[in-house]
Design a protein that fits this description.
The chain has 90 residues and is mostly helical. Helices cover 49% and strands 0% of the residues.
């Protein structure tokens, strides 16, 4: 799944934007990027409780949508028709 998202340049539909921004910023800091003191970065919204709660409500709705999506999924795919030696046709 990750390969398909990266190859197509798509974002993960069920991702949490605030949490994703925070994790990216943490990685940037660990990689050696300078901390910009006194400026609000992209992960600042994660510090605001009302925005976190709003995102959590959105995640609950997304989980419900995902559950509906998965219930209609057929893990085996369409049935294949065999030909030749497997069906003893000549």
């Amino acid at each position: 799944m990750i390969w398909h998202l990266l190859a197509k340049g798509e974002s993960y539909v069920w991702a949490r934007p605030l949490l994703h921004a925070k994790k990216l910023r943490d990685l940037e800091l660990k990689a050696g990027h300078k901390a910009t003191r006194g400026q609000k970065g992209p992960a600042h919204a994660n510090n605001i409780k009302s925005l976190r709660e709003e995102e959590r409500r959105w995640v609950e709705q997304a989980e419900t949508a995902y559950a509906r999506f998965v219930t209609g999924w057929n893990p085996r795919g369409p049935k294949r028709v065999r030909a030749g030696a497997a069906t003893e046709e000549r």
